[in-house]
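To whoever is on call:

I kicked off a structure prediction for a single chain this morning and the downstream step that reads the tokens threw a length-mismatch warning. I double-checked the sequence; it's 131 residues and nothing unusual in it as far as I can see. Pasting both halves so you can look.
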Amino acid sequence: MKIILTSVFVSDQEKALKFYTEVLGFVKKSDVAAEGYRWLTVVSPDDQNGTELLLEPNDNPVAQAYQKGIFEQGISAASFGVGDVRAEYEKLKERGVKFTMEPTEVMPQVTIAVLDDSCGNLIQIQQTAQK
């Protein structure tokens, strides 16, 4: 068994697509309109057949409450692995990304930073050192 799809709720799919592709560097995988909805996914450019991230509209009041609640509590909606958190942090800051946590070693061999995706989510980037 493996994870093939996961999702984040977003306040605006078009804005999210631009952020996740143009700013974070993901690649659009699926963009299908169906009955007034849009199935919109992105993938890592390094693994385009890997796990897809669904940019899911937060139209449902329960989704809105969930998204708002975890954001207000500082909980990340997703975590993305990077080779060098500090370098990624600097690159993204130069692109105007707002961070709520600078690179921080949270346990031995694990460094994280947390960014605001501008669509209602906190996203963690994580570097895990190889042993």
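Update from on-call: the warning came from a stale cache, not from the record. Cleared it. Sanity check on the structure: Residues 5-128 form a domain with the 2,3-Dihydroxybiphenyl 1,2-Dioxygenase; domain 1 fold (CATH 3.10.180.10).
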